[in-house]
C-alpha cells in the first residue's frame, strides 16, 4: 500500500509535483498515467526517498520507505533501467544489491530465471539492449520479494512479447495480493494492465478512478450508426438528452441511446443499418480529453498536438 | 531472447520465516565488497599499484652505486631499504586516488547510485561501507606490494652494499606507513568523489590537491622569500602522507620551516579524510539523486 499526502516537489520556481494525494491499494494494479514531464518519475523517486519532497509525505505500508528495516522487502522499484554500472555483470549487480539484505545466490538465480536473463547473466551490462536492461531492472525490483512494486515505464524498450510478459507479471503480482504501481505515458498500455488509474498532468492529479469510470467520465457512450436512411433515423431517435452528430451523409454518432436500443428502433421502423458500433470511448480519447490542457511540452508545432495526431503517435508507440 | 511467463517465484524466504531478509551493515559491507571486485577498473588499478611498487624497488636497487660515497651509515642503510619498497608510493597514490574517486563517482555517472540508495535508503551506511571496504583493500594491496618488494629485493641489496636490519621497528613501521598513506589518500579522494560526484572534476580536484597546490605554494615561497607557503604545503595530503613512510621522520621546526613526524603526518592525513568524509556524509544525506 502506498499513501501519498500533499506531496510537492519544486525545483527553484518550477513546480514538478504540486501537492498530490493518492493511495495505491494492495491486490490491484494502479496505473500512473500522464504525458512526459507530468511528474510521474519524480513522484516515484520521492516515494522511495531518492528525491526529497519539498512538502507532504509518502509512506509505504504505513512507514516512510527509509524507516523500514528491510526496504527491499517492502518495495521493489524499477525507476531507471540505467541504474546499473555498465562494467558489472547482471549477476554481479543482483548479488551486490541482494547482499545488503542478506539475499543470496538462490534468490538471485530465481529472479534471473523469472526475467529470462539466464543466457546473459554473466555478461557485462554495457552490451545489454534496452529491453534486457529493463528485464534486469525488473529482476532487481523482484529481488526482495516485495509487498509493493513501483515500476516506472516498465514496458519501455520491450518487444511485443516482452510487453505482454510485463503485463502478465503485473497482473499476477497484484493477484498475489501485492501493491503494483506502474507508470506509463501510453494510454492503451494502461487500459490493458491497470485496474485503477491515476492521471497526472503538470504535477497535479486530474483523475483518480477505475479504468471504466475514466472512460465514461470524459467520453460518455457514443455509438456509430451507418445507414442509408440517416435523415429518417435521426428524426426517429431524436429526444431530449440525445445528441446526434452527423459527420458523413450516412454516418451518425449518437450519444445517449445504448446500441441495443438503436438496433431495436431501426428494426421496428424498417431502417436498414450498415453499421452499429458502440464506440466504447477509448482510453486514449479519455486521456487526451483529461490532459489536453495539461500537456506541458507539445511535440513539434501546434499541429503536432492535435488529439488525432497524438492518438496516432501513442497507438504507434504502444504497438511498436 | 526467449520469454517465459513465470510467477514472481515462490520466495525462498517468505515473509514471516525466521530467515527474513533484513538490511544490515554487515550486508552493506558485503555488497560493497562485491561491487569493488566485480568491476574491472578495480582489478587494473590494484595490479598497477603492485607492479609499480615492485618495478620501482628493483630499479632503485639495481641502479644504486655506493662506491662513490662509501658505505652508508646504519641509519642510511635502513632508510635506503625502506625507500626501495616505498619509492613508488608517490605514483601509486595517484592510482589509488583515481580509483577512490571512481568507486563513488562511477556510481553517480552510471546511475548505479540510485540502485545503491534504494537498497540502503539511509545512505550514510552505504558511504561508510564503501570507505571501509575500499580503505581496507587498498591498505592490504599496498602492504602486500611493499612486503613483496622487500622480499624480492632483500637478496639483491647486499650486492650493492646495503645490509639492512629487517627487524628494525622504524623500518617495519615505515612499511606499514607506506600502505596506510596509500589507503588514506584513496579515502580522501573517495570523499572528494562523493562531494563532487562528477568523475572528471573529482579526479582533477584530488590530483590538484596532491600535485598542483604544493607546487604552487613552493613557487610562491621561493618568489616571496617567505616560509608560510612551505608550512602550508607541509600539511597538505601529499606531504603529510609522505611523512608516514619516511624513515625515522621526527617533527621539527628549523628556521621557521615545519616538518612532521610519521605520527603527526598520519594524524594530519586522518584529519583530512575525516573532515572531507563528514562533508560528504552531510551532502549525501541531503541531495536528490
UniProtKB/TrEMBL annotation, chain A:
Coiled-coil intervals: none
Ranges where the ABC transporter domain occurs: 2-227
Region (Disordered): 299-320
Ranges of compositional bias, category Low complexity: 304-320
Keyword Transport set for record: yes
Pfam family, one: ABC_tran
The UniProt record lists the keyword ATP-binding: yes
Keywords assigned: ATP-binding, Nucleotide-binding, Transport
SMART domains according to UniProt: AAA
MF-aspect GO terms: ATP binding; ATP hydrolysis activity
InterPro entries: AAA+_ATPase, ABC_transporter-like_ATP-bd, P-loop_NTPase
PANTHER family xref list: ABC TRANSPORTER, ATP-BINDING PROTEIN
Family: Belongs to the ABC transporter superfamily.
Name of this protein: ATP-binding cassette domain-containing protein
Organism in which the protein naturally occurs: Naasia lichenicola
TrEMBL record, chain B:
Transmembrane regions listed in the UniProt entry: 43-64, 84-106, 127-152, 172-193, 200-221, 265-284
Keyword set, alphabetical order: Membrane, Transmembrane, Transmembrane helix
Pfam hit, one: ABC2_membrane_4
Keyword Zinc set for record: no
Entry protein name: ABC transporter permease
